[in-house]
Design goal:
Low-confidence stretches: none
Bound molecules: manganese (II) ion
Order of helices and strands: HEHEEEHEEHHHHHEEHHEEHEEH
CATH superfamily of the largest domain: inorganic pyrophosphatase (n-terminal core)
CATH class of the largest domain: Alpha Beta
Number of helices: 12
Shape: globular
Number of domains: 2
Strand order of the largest sheet: 3-2-1-4-5-6
Length: 326
């Protein structure tokens, strides 16, 4: 039984490495902190190590400073690792190799449809709104009583991964979980305020630059962010999280594509679908990426122009395939 395996995994180990994906979002940070706080309550030693720093918008969570981005010292003992919200081990950068080389077992807790089941124990619930919701379910099944701080971290993950309860992954169960979190004292209004209404003026300026690039081709909206825009706006690179969702406000589009140029020239591509019949996880997987059916992404060193063309073709292909199947 899976919950029993997780229970043993936690009980039999004393020190844990917790990690999550590059470009950490609210679900990554929320699930990590909730797990870490609980393990510490159980007198475990915990190291939270991420490939990239915590975005400013999540630094209202009291424990964010516990998240480190450097390799642990050689002499530190780590018995086990927990990968949270990581569909694919490429998304944790050097950390997967580090863990494998040391022979540290992995507990994989996730909700991505594209999860490659790389763990020694895999808890992958594709129906869950978020990894944070998975954590809630696990704690509940193990009879763990949650404190207010843990509830707040879980709520942060659920709010952000459901787009404030508006995406398809928002289920009846998600609301039931949130009702319980609310009973535990989580103030959803002030939490949303911290997450969404504390942007810097620089990040809004950056948003205006990004939105000015918009073009719509065959029902797909394309927007882009360049290194130059980051410099001119004065915003931090991680402050563009969620920009793609603004584009989805256009009524006449079915999908949105957001290109982000990194300082090494790599392009990170975020794909969003408003149309249930268009599965962007399938598009992302063509380019060796992954995610969810309505939100996915991949990385590439090709130019934005080349990628735009290839993505258009990919969309056409999955649409014709769909037509044929009827
Ligand atoms: Mn997630």
């Amino acid at each position: 039984m899976l919950f029993q395996d997780i229970n043993n995994f936690i009980n039999e180990n004393q020190s844990f490495l917790i990690t999550s994906h590059i470009e950490p979002d609210g679900d990554a940070i929320g699930s990590e902190l909730s797990m870490a706080i609980q393990l510490e309550k159980m007198s475990k030693r915990v190291f939270i190590i991420n490939p990239e720093p915590v975005p400013k918008r999540y630094r209202f969570l009291r424990r964010w400073k516990d998240i480190e981005i450097k390799k642990p010292r050689q002499n530190i003992r780590i018995d086990a690792s927990i990968f949270l919200d990581v569909g694919n081990t490429k998304r944790v950068s050097w950390i997967f190799d580090f863990v494998k080389k040391k022979g540290i077992p992995i507990l994989n807790i996730d909700h991505h449809v594209s999860n490659s089941l790389y763990g020694d124990i895999n808890y992958v619930d594709k129906e869950a709104s978020s990894t944070s919701e998975c954590i809630f379910d696990i704690f509940k099944a193990l009879g763990i009583k949650l404190n207010g701080e843990i509830c707040e971290c879980i709520a942060t993950g659920i709010i952000t991964d459901t787009g404030r309860f508006s995406f398809k992954n928002t289920s009846e169960k998600t609301f039931r979980v949130c009702a319980e979190l609310s009973c535990c004292g989580v103030d959803f209004s002030s939490l949303s305020n911290y997450i969404y209404n504390k942007r810097s003026i620089e990040s809004i300026r950056l948003l205006s630059f990004v939105l000015s690039t918009i073009k719509v081709i065959e029902g797909i909206a394309f927007v882009q962010l360049t290194q130059r825009m980051i410099k001119e706006s004065g915003a931090g690179e991680e402050e563009s999280e969620g920009f793609v969702n603004y584009v989805l406000a256009i009524g006449d589009i079915k999908s949105a594509v957001f290109f982000r140029e990194k300082s090494n020239g790599e392009i990170r591509v975020s794909l969003r679908s408003k149309d249930e019949t268009i599965n962007v996880n399938r598009i992302a997987s063509i380019f060796n990426g992954g995610g969810h059916s309505q939100a996915a992404g991949f990385r590439s060193f090709k130019s934005m122009k080349e990628l735009e063309l290839e993505i258009l073709i990919a969309f056409q292909n999955i649409e014709t395939k769909r037509d044929c199947s009827y």
